[in-house]
Every structure is written in C-alpha cells, then in structure tokens.
C-alpha cells in the first residue's frame, strides 16, 4: 500500500545546494533541493539524473559518482563546460553581459537571442536563461526558436556569476555529463544505484523544451525496469494533480511506488508568465515525490 505523507518531516541530512542558482530554469528545485535530498537513501552507488535542467538536486547531493544527462544539446554544453573549463563558462557570460553597457539591456538581450536562434549554443543560452523573463526558457516545437522576451530584472554581474561557477564546479566535478534520452541513461542504473527524475509536466510545460513529445506512461515503464533491477528511483511530479484548468489524471501503476510525499513549493512562475504577471493567489503548487523504496 502506498504510504502518503503531506509535507512530512524528512530524516535529517546535511546536504544543501550552493546559495545561488547557476541557471534560471522553469521548475528549478533550488529552494527545495535540500529537503528533497533528505528523502534519498542513506547509501547508494552511482547517482543518475536523466532530466538535468537546472541541476539543483545534483549540486545539493554533490555525488561521488554521478551521471547527468538531458536531450537538449545547448544545455548539456553548459554543464560539460562547467565541469571541464569553468573559466570559459565565465567568459561566455561576461562577454554577453557587457553588451548591456554598449547597447542597453533589451537590445543586448535581443542581439544574443538572435545569435542563439541562428545557431543554438550553450554560450548564448547561459546568458539568455539568466536574462529572460522569469527564467521561463521556451522554444517553438517546429524549429526550436527561442521566444522568451527579456526580463524586467538586471542579470547578475559577471563577478557574481563567476562566484557561482566556482561553487557549482566543485559540486559537479565527479559527475559525467552527456546528451542522451532519459531511457538510455536510466537503463545504465544498476542494483543499489539512485535515479532522480524531474520530467516536464506534459500539460503546464508544453511550451518548454522537450515537453511536447514526452510520455509519462513510458517513463513509468522505464522506472519499473529500474526497480526490477534493484535501483532506487525518486520521481518529482505535479503534486496538485492539476495544471492550469486541467486535472492531470496520472496513471501510476499499483505497486510501483512505495511512498508518496508532498512538498509545498510556492506559486507557479510558469502560470504567472502565462497570465501576464498576475499575482496568482490560487496557484500555489506542491511537488509530489514518489519513491520506489
């Protein structure tokens, strides 16, 4: 029988992410990473994160042996550069940020955005995700064109970004990054390994990269395979069982998950973006953790 805990008190664990997020990314778990990580097994082998995104859980855990992946090539390029050549990552950001002095913030953003859309790459994306509206990085399905407007805030300075690069570099130095489909990555998880899945929500994140063709039903099949092999799996999913005005009837097979835990995460930035910046008093969401152990 699935054990459900509403905003449960997790076991004590001293792991925490760096104070500042490296990338602004929709669904970023930066503020809740420490709490989520506390539910992970005390002992496990390799750590797998097949939906990398902002990497908040990876940085909080700082695994001794990690494998992180994503299907989005420019994003993976950022993470690979963070690990192997952090000075270059700092240079990418600084070079684009300094366009603001010459062109103004909006024009600088539009210049970098045009460069990215002509040839998607990590160097442009690392600036765009910090400068775009609310960190809502979205792309057109038909051609990958990034359409998020410039944010109202001033992107952090190159010196502040450099400090974050240094802090995050230490956390990921023992992780291998690659571009791969989640199924390919998860198939490598063996007995005693840990897999953390934070997939796109198929309704609310249909505008985001990779979300358009994502199948939760197939992910659950892959999770079941991991469980049969003896790997531990933690799945983050929409805790309210709704997205906008749609009720998400999520098809969880009986016996796949042993525990269900709800963690309140605040108001939805994506819904605020979709509703033109309104204060969404009724849009408080919770993250639902489903554990196979």
Task: Describe this protein's structure.
The chain has 293 residues and is α/β, with parallel strands linked by helices. Helices cover 35% and strands 17% of the residues. The protein has helices at residues 33-37, 56-61, 73-84, 86-97, 99-103, 105-118, 122-131, 158-172, 182-186, 216-229, 269-274; strands spanning 3-6, 47-49, 66-70, 175-179, 194-197, 232-238, 242-243, 246-247, 259-267, 284-291. The strands form two sheets. The protein has an eight-stranded mixed β-sheet with strand order 1-9-10-6-5-2-3-4, with helices on both faces. A two-stranded antiparallel ribbon has the order 7-8.
Brief sketch in words of this structure:
It contains eleven helices and ten strands. It has helices at 33-37, 56-61, 73-84, 86-97, 99-103, 105-118, 122-131, 158-172, 182-186, 216-229, 269-274, and strands spanning 3-6, 47-49, 66-70, 175-179, 194-197, 232-238, 242-243, 246-247, 259-267, 284-291. Helix 3 (73-84) crosses helix 7 and helix 4 (86-97) crosses helix 7.
Strand residue content: 15-25%
CATH superfamily: Vaccinia Virus protein VP39
Helical/strand content category: alpha/beta
The CATH first-level class comes to Alpha Beta
């Amino acid at each position: 029988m699935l054990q459900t805990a509403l905003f449960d008190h997790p076991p004590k664990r001293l792991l925490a992410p760096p104070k500042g997020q490296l990338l602004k990314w929709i669904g970023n778990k930066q503020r809740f990473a420490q709490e989520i990580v506390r539910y992970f097994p005390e002992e496990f082998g390799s750590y797998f994160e097949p939906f990398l995104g902002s990497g908040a859980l990876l940085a909080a855990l700082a695994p001794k042996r990690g494998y992180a992946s994503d299907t989005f090539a420019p994003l993976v390029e950022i993470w690979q550069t963070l690990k192997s050549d952090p000075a270059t990552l700092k240079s990418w950001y600084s070079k684009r940020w300094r366009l603001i002095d010459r062109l103004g913030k909006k024009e600088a953003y539009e210049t970098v955005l045009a460069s990215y859309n002509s040839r998607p790459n990590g160097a442009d994306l690392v600036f765009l995700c910090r400068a775009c509206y609310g960190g809502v990085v979205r792309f057109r399905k038909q051609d990958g064109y990034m359409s998020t407007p410039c944010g109202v805030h001033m992107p952090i300075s190159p010196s502040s970004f450099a400090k974050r690069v240094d802090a995050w570099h230490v956390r990921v130095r023992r992780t291998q990054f690659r571009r791969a489909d989640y199924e390919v990555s998860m198939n490598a998880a063996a007995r005693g390994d840990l897999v953390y899945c934070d997939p796109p929500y198929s309704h609310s994140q249909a505008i985001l990269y990779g979300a358009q063709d994502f199948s939760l039903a197939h992910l659950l099949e892959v999770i079941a395979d991991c469980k049969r092999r003896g790997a531990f799996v933690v799945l983050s999913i929409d805790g309210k069982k709704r997205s906008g005005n749609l009720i998400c009837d999520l098809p969880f097979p009986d016996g796949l998950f042993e525990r269900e835990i709800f963690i309140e995460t605040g108001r939805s930035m994506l819904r605020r973006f979709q509703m033109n910046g309104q204060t969404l008093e009724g849009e408080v969401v919770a993250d639902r953790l489903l554990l196979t152990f």
